[in-house]
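Letters spell out the chain; backbone shape is given numerically. Take this protein:
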Amino acid sequence: MKIIDNVYLVPGVTANCYLLAGPDGLTIIDTGLPYSQKTILRYMAGKGWSARDIKRILITHADLDHYGCLAALQKESGARTYASRVEAEAIAKGKSSRPIDRRRNNTLQRLLIAFFSRIMKATPFPVDEILTEGQVLPALGGLQVVETPGHSPDHISFFAPSAQILFCGDSMRSDDQGLHTSRSRNDWDPDCAAASIRKQAGLGAQIVCPGHGPVVREAGGKFPIW
């Protein structure tokens, strides 16, 4: 699905996977669950791109549904991979960056977590480059790294000022009513999460692309801050 020129949401991937096209090739933000590479590459092929057009893979945080097929997609593409330090350390172990406390979930959620943990595992993968606040990547005229901890210890988001578009990972979620706090039972630090939302609200983004839920347009004033 086209969001704006050169920015696409790959359908059928959990969590949301975004494709950014540029003169030097493609940048991907988050990769979805294990085996999602097949869906991503099929979508790319429909637009005339091959795996080798992928130059960068950016990961917002080390949850299975955001980096599950990173290793497989990198093997297909040879792309350079990026994440923040704590999240990269977890990815290198094939784990999450914080413990998932199943006691905080209801019975059905605990059963689902147990089921998926048995059948789906991320392949441990050494990330190429560690990202920090303020770095600028060569996509969309300059894609800024924004540190947005809270949902996970070292969660990062990406903001392109020239396009006024923000890729916020799981620092926020969305539905047909707009943007909301993550409100995940597995949030690492709710206070940090709230501060990260306030920080992102000040960036001036008019389009917000979350890790889960629809893209939010005319986003100014729609951030869930308090």
Observations:
- Helices lie at 37-46, 64-67, 70-77, 85-93, 107-119, 190-201.
- The chain has a mean pLDDT of 92.
- The first strand starts at residue 2 and ends at 4.
- The domain at 2-217 is CATH 3.60.15.10 (Metallo-beta-lactamase; Chain A).
